[in-house]
Amino acid sequence: MEFYNKPGEYDAINYIPHTESHGTKELWKTFWLLLGITLFDFMIYFVMPASGFRNFIFIFFGLVKAYFIVGAFMHLKHEKISLALIILVPTIFICGLIIGLLYEGSALEVMKSM
Amino acid sequence: MANHTTTEASFENQPTWAGGRSPFNVSYGKLMMWIFLLSDAFTFSSLLVQYGTQRFSNVITPITTKWPDPASIFNHFPGMHGFHLPLLFVSVMTFILILSSVTMVLAVEAGHRNSKKEVAKFMIYTILGGLAFLSCQAWEWYTFIHEGARLDGNTFGITKQGYDHLHSVSFGSHFEWEVGDRTFGPVPFAALFFIVTGFHGFHVFSGVVINVVVYIMTVRGVFERRGHYEMIEKAGLYWHFVDLVWVFVFTFFYLI
Question: What is B27-255's CATH number, 2.60.410.10, 3.60.15.10, 1.20.120.80, 1.10.3210.10?
Answer without folding.
Answer: 1.20.120.80
